């Protein structure tokens, strides 16, 4: 596939080099088109070495090939990363003052732009207007990630990780060309074509008063990656998002929720029409028994407040029970995938606890993450860009290890789902606790 990789003039340009490597390693022909400003961050030699192709930035270069038109005509996909505030403005305004903006003007292929800039720039009404206009014209503009920016600042404006942009490109091509080959060049690349998949992700927040809540450390990265992988595999995806630190996957029908009860309502509304359900959300086990109508104040007598907790519903178990009962129109062969975050202790290993949970919940597959800090004190799963998990199956088959970036783990989970759909995975009808 012929891909043009446009690179804007931001410090995140170094990540575009990693993105270029992902495309070329997948076997695609990539032409890098940096702006002059981008070359101040990453030099021309880097782009030429990684792509194996000459790099040009100006309209009056290679004029004998009419390069400023040819590139856009020949491109099958254009990805711009990072898309700075200035570049978004020039693209929205139809400017043609360098090779990249000329290429964008003449292209008729899918265009994906990944913004990166300071938070105030992203939130400025001018930038938001430019993004809205580009999206209205059919350009796919990702939301920036939330995190550390240049210097000590943090907030929305961070360039998504190269793996996330790459996965979004997969989904965009799959959406635009139902018969297009997978960018990863794998056989049987759309095994979920025609399937409906519901994915929940992120951590629920249980309100205590108008200011405070009980929450957890889930970022939603793994659930979002699974949704992207399912879209790339051809599925029609509904993404039920609690609190997440990443942009929802492009191409999914997004449903926003906050608390466990809201998540339950959303899942019960959308699951009956699904072929596959992936419960990757980190649902709080407990919630305050009552919501205080005003902020709880510190008392002068130093007395500590007492907050009574009650159990939240076990959404995964309820979905299995409803499917097994067949009372709400849910297909009896619906495949349900659970997630478990476990730690080992004196009573057993994380794997033993995971297998027990798989049997107790009644789902067909369970993705087991061992959470907590590793030997160095670093967090293993929550908020990280890499993951290591075991995929456990109710049919008793050997656990399958999935490790690498969260997109790579998501790919392994989706492939395991596809294999399960090709076998007789109909649930046993014993009661579920």
UniProtKB/TrEMBL annotation:
One of its GO terms (biological process) is coenzyme A biosynthetic process. Residues 1-170 form the Flavoprotein domain. The keyword Nucleotide-binding does not apply. Coiled coil: none annotated. CTP binds at residues 285, 295, 313-316, 339, 357, 361. It catalyses: N-[(R)-4-phosphopantothenoyl]-L-cysteine + H(+) = (R)-4'-phosphopantetheine + CO2; (R)-4'-phosphopantothenate + L-cysteine + CTP = N-[(R)-4-phosphopantothenoyl]-L-cysteine + CMP + diphosphate + H(+). Pathway: Cofactor biosynthesis; coenzyme A biosynthesis; CoA from (R)-pantothenate: step 2/5; Cofactor biosynthesis; coenzyme A biosynthesis; CoA from (R)-pantothenate: step 3/5. Residues 197-433 are annotated as: Phosphopantothenate--cysteine ligase. GO terms for molecular function: FMN binding; metal ion binding; phosphopantothenate--cysteine ligase activity; phosphopantothenoylcysteine decarboxylase activity. Keywords: Decarboxylase, Flavoprotein, FMN, Ligase, Lyase, Magnesium, Metal-binding, Multifunctional enzyme. The keyword Metal-binding applies. InterPro entries: CoaB-like_sf, CoaBC, DNA/pantothenate-metab_flavo_C, Flavin_trans-like, Flavoprotein. GO terms for cellular component: phosphopantothenoylcysteine decarboxylase complex. Its cofactor is Mg(2+); FMN. Residues 1-196 are annotated as: Phosphopantothenoylcysteine decarboxylase. Residues 192-419 form the DNA/pantothenate metabolism flavoprotein C-terminal domain. Its EC number is 4.1.1.36, 6.3.2.5. Catalyzes two sequential steps in the biosynthesis of coenzyme A. In the first step cysteine is conjugated to 4'-phosphopantothenate to form 4-phosphopantothenoylcysteine. In the second step the latter compound is decarboxylated to form 4'-phosphopantotheine. Catalyzes two steps in the biosynthesis of coenzyme A. In the first step cysteine is conjugated to 4'-phosphopantothenate to form 4-phosphopantothenoylcysteine, in the latter compound is decarboxylated to form 4'-phosphopantotheine. NCBIfam families: coaBC_dfp. In the N-terminal section; belongs to the HFCD (homo-oligomeric flavin containing Cys decarboxylase) superfamily. HAMAP family: CoaBC (MF_02225). This is Coenzyme A biosynthesis bifunctional protein CoaBC. It comes from Sinomonas puerhi.
């Amino acid at each position: 596939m012929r891909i043009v990789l446009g690179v804007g003039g931001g410090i995140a340009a170094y990540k575009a080099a990693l993105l270029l490597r992902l495309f070329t390693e997948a076997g695609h022909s990539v032409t890098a088109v940096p702006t002059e400003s981008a070359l101040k961050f990453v030099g021309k030699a880097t782009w030429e070495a990684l792509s194996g192709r000459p790099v040009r930035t100006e309209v009056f270069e290679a004029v004998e090939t009419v390069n400023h038109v040819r590139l856009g005509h020949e491109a099958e996909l254009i990805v711009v990363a990072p898309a700075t505030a200035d570049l978004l403005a020039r693209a929205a305004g139809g400017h043609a003052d360098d090779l990249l903006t000329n290429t964008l003007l003449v292209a008729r292929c899918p265009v994906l732009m990944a913004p990166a800039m300071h938070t105030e720039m992203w939130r400025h009404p001018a930038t938001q207007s430019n993004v809205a206009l580009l999206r209205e014209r059919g350009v796919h503009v990702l939301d920036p990630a939330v995190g550390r920016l240049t210097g000590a600042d943090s907030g929305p404006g961070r360039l998504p990780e190269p793996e996330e942009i790459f996965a979004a490109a997969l989904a965009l091509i799959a959406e635009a060309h139902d018969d297009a080959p997978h960018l990863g060049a794998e056989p049987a690349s759309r095994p979920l074509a025609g399937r409906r998949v519901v994915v929940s992700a992120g951590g629920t927040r249980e309100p205590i008063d108008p200011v405070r809540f009980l929450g957890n450390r889930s970022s939603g990265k793994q659930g979002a990656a699974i949704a992207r992988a399912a879209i790339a595999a051809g599925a029609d995806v509904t993404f039920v998002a609690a609190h997440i630190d990443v942009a929802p996957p492009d191409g999914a029908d997004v449903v926003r929720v906050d608390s466990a009860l809201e998540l339950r309502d959303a899942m019960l509304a959308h699951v009956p029409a699904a072929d596959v359900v992936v419960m990757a959300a980190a649902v709080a086990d407990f919630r305050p028994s009552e919501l205080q109508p005003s902020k709880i104040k510190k008392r002068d007598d130093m007395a500590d407040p007492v907050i009574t907790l009650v159990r939240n519903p076990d959404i995964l178990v309820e979905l299995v029970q409803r499917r097994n009962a067949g009372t709400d129109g849910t297909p009896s062969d619906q495949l349900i995938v659970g997630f478990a975050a476990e730690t080992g202790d004196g009573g057993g290993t994380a794997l033993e606890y995971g297998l027990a949970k798989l049997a107790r919940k009644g789902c067909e597959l369970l993705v087991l993450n061992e959470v907590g800090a590793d030997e160095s004190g670093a967090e293993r799963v929550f908020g990280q860009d890499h993951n290591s998990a075991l995929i456990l199956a109710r049919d008793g088959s050997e656990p399958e290890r999935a490790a690498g970036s969260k997109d790579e783990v998501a790919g392994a989970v989706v492939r395991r789902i596809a294999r399960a759909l090709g076998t007789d995975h109909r649930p046993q009808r014993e009661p579920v606790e």
